[in-house]
Amino acid sequence: MKIDDYNETIKACRYCLMCRHECTVGNITQRDTNTPRGKSLVLFAEQKNLLEWDRRAIEVMYECTNCHLCREWCVSEYDVAPLMMAARADIVDMGLAPAGAVLMKDNLNNSGNPYGETESKLEEWKKSIQKKSKADILLYFGCTTAYRRPEIAQSAYAILKHLDANMTILDDEPCCGEPYFIMGYQKEAKLQAERSLDRIRESGAHTVVTTCPTCTLSFRKSFKEWGVEVPKDYRFIHISEFIDEEIEAGRLNLNGVLQSSVTYHDPCSLGRELGIYDAPRKVINTVHGVEFHEMRLNRNYSPCCGNGGGVQATNINIALGAGEN
Fold first, then answer.
1. What are phi and psi for residue 139, nearest 5 degrees?
2. pLDDT per position as a tens digit, 192-211
3. 259, 252, 205, 201: which is closest to 228 by C-alpha?
4. Cα separation of 89 and 93, whole Å?
5. What is the DSSP pairing of strand 288-292 with strand 137-140?
6. How many CA atoms lie within 13 A of 193 on its CB side?
7. Cβ neighbours, 10 Å, residue 87
8. Residue 231 to residue 122: CA distance in whole angstroms
9. Measured between alpha carbons, how far is 304 from 286 in angstroms, rounded to an integer?
10. Buried residues in 249-278 as b, exposed as e (16+ CB within 10 A)
11. pTM of the model
């Protein structure tokens, strides 16, 4: 069992209440079972054959947003999120994956994206721009940008175009593989990661600018953890970091004026996982007229939006509750 690799976490967390006040899911359901302590205790009981892998035990393992907030409030820095990913992999290996996880896997297999849609919202737009077969920079959008927030892709492209960057995009951009992994399909995640790297190689680019925090996390960190060999001369950079670097180098000037009060939400993947906190704030504060205000909880203590960990596919009410909070 993959959870056996996390025995130290299970033993440390099963009776500890230190982080439960900040658990994204526990605060929504108000169930102790959903806190890091509760989930660890369930897994301890499973290991000791005190519980069966029934429907509710499986649901609990998939009711985690993978936000890593528990680690930030733990004096010993234990992290229950990787334990949940291991538990899900064990559940998949036992053939007990819940319907939401199976549906996402089928969507990825059949449509190439977790939403199960045959065409992204960028397809018509892509036809209107000239694409290079080879370039120094690859602009990588990610599934959520392409299928849900196309304006982010178009804005990022406009910035690189303004800079006259030697860049290209992919016509049939593949998923990075993270949705497979968070649902417990670790073998499929590794294969998908290798496919996405193959496409990057074909582009000739050695710098990949991403608009999706989760894709950034996959390329920089997750692939190596999955056993995928990433070329050492490849550089993966989030769009906020890219813009910040261009401003610092004097190649990009934000001369417009935006009279607005602005705040910034740190994504779990970009913040707690990759430590990218300053670049987005520096870019925002460069805009003339903007009055920037930090949220009460920010940076490594930033609340989870609820869209991570695949929870939107297995328990939409939890995802919506986190978003409302």
1. -90, 115
2. 999 999 999 999 999 999 99
3. 201
4. 6
5. unpaired
6. 28
7. 28
8. 29
9. 26
10. eeebeeeeeeeeeeebebbbbbbbbbebbe
11. 0.95
* Best CA proximity match to 142, nearest among 150, 134, 130: 150
For residue 197, the number of C-alpha atoms closer than 13 Å in the C-beta half-sphere is: 20
Tokens of 237: 């950079």
> 87 Cβ partners below 8 Å, 6+ apart?
2, 3, 39, 43, 61
Which residue's entry shows tokens 């000239």? 130
Rounded Cα distance between 149 and 240, Å, is 16
The full set of domain ranges for the chain reads 2-96, 123-292
Spatial distance between the Cα atoms of 246 and 280, rounded to a whole number of angstroms = 13
In this structure, are residues 167 and 135 in contact, taking their beta carbons and an 8 Å threshold? yes
- Dump pLDDT digits (tens) for 21-52: 999 999 999 999 999 999 999 999 999 999 99
Backbone region of residue 49 per phi and psi (left: phi > 0; alpha: psi in -120 to 50; beta: other values): left
Q: Contact at 8 Å (CB) between 137 and 131?
A: no
CATH hierarchy code of domain 123-292 = 3.40.50.1860
Cα–Cα distance, 214 to 278 (Å, whole number): 18
Amino acid at 284: I
Tokens 């996405």 belong to residue: 196
Write out the H or E segment, with its range, that includes residue 152: helix 150-162
The residue whose two tokens read 């940076």 is 299
Residue 200 tokens, joined? 């990057």
CA–CA distance, 64 with 19 (Å, rounded to integer)? 14
